[in-house]
Amino acid sequence: MTAPLTTAAQIRQHIERLPLGEPFTPAALLACGTRATVDQTLSRLVKSGVITRVARGVFVRPEMSRFVGRVMPDPMAVAETLARTTGATLQMHGAEAARRLQLTTQVPTQPVFSTSGPSRRIRVGTLEIRLQHVSQRKLALAGRPAGMALAAMWYLGQKAVTPALIEKIRCQLPAAEFEALTAATRTMPAWMSDAVFRHQQQSHG
């Protein structure tokens, strides 16, 4: 008969099943043992180099590159992992959303994310990630392309958000996501919903 695995062995086995470079928190391992045991085991695994502590309370099985050595996880993945542990809503910042939707060519110099949780800064290696608290209405449709478009519109502001810009967004989004965006006018400020309404009128005109 096989002897049952020790708590430390269970934790290590769970971690070894995770993809390289995917951040995780101690909360993900609490089914294996008490918080104290989990913390002690993680501390030993950090010392032995099996995992890396990338930020307070966030760990990763490091991905290694023969060119740069240890590869840090994607800032979005770290921010999402932290958000999950606190139950906070997370959204890509409007500056990055606008760049990804090709509405601006400016590249943000620092990873910033909008959150329903408290504002905080997290250092990941040499990089600082900023979580910025925003109102719930700015997080409508978070985690999907329509939410990314909404974040971009909030960031670009009233003067930039015209029917022509809405048309550019329409071209970048899958049809179902654009439909979700235009259906969310109740969460938008008047200037934004007006631009969406004018775009719809022009499209059907």
Structure description:
Helices cover 43% and strands 16% of the residues. Helix 1 crosses helix 2, helix 4 packs across helix 5 (145-156) and helix 5 (145-156) packs across helix 7 (175-182). The chain has helices at residues 7-17, 35-47, 75-86, 94-100, 145-156, 163-172, 175-182, 190-204, and strands spanning 52-55, 58-60, 63-65, 69-71, 90-92, 112-115, 120-124, 127-133. With 205 residues, it is an alpha+beta fold. The longest helix has 15 residues, at 190-204. It starts with 6 loop residues before the first helix and ends with a helix. It has a four-stranded mixed beta sheet with strand order 5-6-8-7. The chain has a two-stranded antiparallel ribbon with strand order 1-2. It has a two-stranded antiparallel ribbon with strand order 3-4.
Mean pLDDT: 90
**Fraction of helical residues:** 40-55%
- Overall structural class, as computed from helix and strand content, comes to alpha+beta
Number of strands: 8
Percent of sequence in beta strands: 15-25%
Task: Spell out the helices and strands N to C.
Answer: HHEEEEHEHEEEHHHH
Instruction: Report how far the terminal alpha carbons are from each other.
Output: 76 Å
Query: What low-confidence regions span 5 or more consecutive residues with pLDDT below 50?
Result: none
